[in-house]
Design goal:
Radius of gyration: 18 Å
Strand order of the largest sheet: 2-1-3-4-5
Largest sheet: 5 strands, parallel
Number of domains: 2
Organism: Streptomyces triticirhizae
CATH class of the largest domain: Alpha Beta
Distance between the termini: 18 Å
CATH superfamily of the largest domain: Response regulator
Strand content: 15-25%
Domain OmpR/PhoB-type: 124-217
Structural class: alpha/beta
Domain Response regulatory: 2-116
GO cellular component, one term: protein-DNA complex
GO molecular function, one term: phosphorelay response regulator activity
Number of helices: 8
Amino acid sequence: MRVLVVEDERLLADAVATGLRRQAMAVDVVYDGEAALERVDINEYDVVVLDRDLPLVHGDDVCRHIVAAGLPTRVLMLTASGDVSDRVEGLEIGADDYLPKPFAFTELIARVRALGRRATAPLPPVLERAGITLDPNRREVFRAGRPIQLAPKEFAVLEVLMRGDGAVVSAEQLLEKAWDENTDPFTNVVRVTVMTLRRKLGEPPVITTVPGAGYRI
């Protein structure tokens, strides 16, 4: 899942991004509404965690832009105000969910995951393919009942491949979904991660390399 965090309180923004990355999400961070507009027009995000009171361009206008552009991105709006009228106004603008500050981080994660599921075609909560079982919410992976410990990026790559449902997923698509925009597109990080993932999943191999196209399970 790819997420954009838009929050002008830099310590909070960076803390949220760090926590989401630990949940195997690819996260970009910006600190004002103008930068947010640039990012959503360039990158495809499943969820935008959007502070309402932003400098340069107000969060409401960022939300309106996402809705007007017809993007599949879901918006979780944050605000320091917990008034019902503010929550209603945010939802009427086009936000998909609303979370007042301060918030419990576990609740933020749960809401982001729920919105991420709504940003894509409906899928079962637990993914199963080729003897692999992956639970995105619990961040658990099993093969033939045996638990497999994966690093966050390995988990993210495996989830993207399993969501492909047998289709070929290109290295570019894996970069887009599992890494943030600071990753060098010419790096071999995808190949190395897939190689490590294959080793951890064990024999017989379940990830197939399609020369010149990508990978699939």
